[in-house]
Amino acid sequence: MDVPKEQITALLDNALFNSAQLLGSFLVSSSTVNAETSPHLKAENLVLLGDALFREREYRRAIHTYKQALQYYKIIPKQNSTSSRSALSASNRSSSPNSFNICAINENEMEGIPSKARNLQMSLLMAKLYRNTKHTRGAVTCYRECLRQCPYVIEAIIALAELGASAKDIISLFPQTPNRGGRAQLDHGDSSRWLQRYVEAQCCIASNDYKGGLELLAELLQRFPNNTHILLEMAKVEAIIGKNDEAIMNFEKVRSVDPYVVTCMDEYAMLLKMKSDYSKLNKLVHDLLSIDPTRPEVFVALSVLWERKDERGALSYAEKSIKIDERHIPGYLMKGNLLLALKRPESAVMAFRGAQELRADLRSYQVHSYLAFSKVKEALYAAREAMKAMPQSAKALKLVGDVHASNSGGREKAKKFYESALRLEPGYLGAALALAELHVIEGRNGDAVSLLERYLKDWADDSLHVKLAQVFAATNMLQDSLSHYQSALRINPQNEAAKKGLERLEKQMKGVDPDAPEDEEENEVDDADAEQEEAELL
Predict the structure, then answer these.
(1) Nearest-5° Cα angle at 167, 164 to 169
(2) Confidence band for 456, pLDDT divided at 50, 70 and 90
(3) pLDDT at 34
(4) Is 203-258 CATH 3.20.20.70?
(5) What pLDDT sits at residue 537?
(6) 494 in helix, strand or coil?
(7) CATH fold of 1-75+110-175+193-202, please?
(8) What pTM was computed for the model?
(9) Which Gene3D superfamilies match (predicted)?
(10) Does domain 262-358 match CATH 1.25.40.10?
């Protein structure tokens, strides 16, 4: 079997509920268990996952999982029902945690306990305490001890990868031979190779080798179809590298498998906002509030929803998410973006730095914060740091290009960086749009049009149509501009830039100054619309 059930039971017995439910997600999605021929096994697996989710206090997910188990239980042949019932009840009994005395032990007392005398629960708690207080060496030591005791502590694998351990180093910690201490052993045959692949994937992602990480996760997904944890990991990486459509698709797949997942749904909310898909965003926030309104992801999602109506209110939601969990990275990213919008770039830099200290990715390099208050030198330093950390990243190259493009003397350098980014990743539309904008600034409208039209042959993207429409409008080719704005809205009816551009264009075509102030009546209508949306949300 791919995932030994007794290991999930052991994790539950040691109150390692998060690792238990992550491992449980592999158990229930394993392609080696055929639900039609072995419904009793499927039911048992789902009960184990439900137990882990219940103890992790993800109650709505637990109920959803138990209901699935009951559906499989109903199709078990009657002759097997007695044995299945006893197996299910045994599963329930064995998964009950047998000790919670660790709650009464404080940090100083735990440090006084020799490492060999600490159980699995103590070792993981010590690792988290060390990491939260930035004692990296102590954290690494305790996480390593966790994996020596049990190779299936998924939390420890992820943490060690993020703290810089290599895949070879992590895999070497897994128990190799039988021992008298009752520690979990890892079968190094084909059935456990998935765990080694998982370690390699996490180490790739932590070292910013996003392409390698995605390839390994995709390989794992074939073995564990519809695994919510793998799908979420893939979606997170795709969001970081700008593959927004793929990320949205994977987030939606997770919600179709388990509509009660809250983890990472704030990152999904950010992508929906970028796509201007407010109907889906509104529904997502309502769903999250009904599942568990105490989670940091819910407050980030609320912040995303409120951003276009009340930036200060949105900022308070982002700050609330950080108060709930000081290690919640999307909270810092959202806070940084809102502070930029509120023209507080110095504070934005601090927020992005908070995200970077937890886990540096391309979104946390505060390049545009520095540019917002003309600190070009600091912006260039941050962009180069990103490029050093991620030399094979087209997005990092674009960041350097953005800094050079911010002043007239650096535009030729910017052009080279944008072109390098496109050579490295031809499908990176962000670099294509930035290069087109550079062409327009320097009066090369024909080059901008030919570049954008070339990309439109392969990518039917609304942002490409909007940029083309803007170029045509600037050169007074109003009919061509109209055609591309309409194409953008056909692809994405919620595209705000296309809507606003079309409004301006219609005024231009009527001979009206598009920058003239609007009437008071129109402003009042907008306010009424906003109030109605707020009422619907509440």
Answers:
(1) 80
(2) confident
(3) 72
(4) no
(5) 37
(6) coil
(7) 1.25.40
(8) 0.78
(9) Tetratricopeptide repeat domain (1.25.40.10)
(10) yes
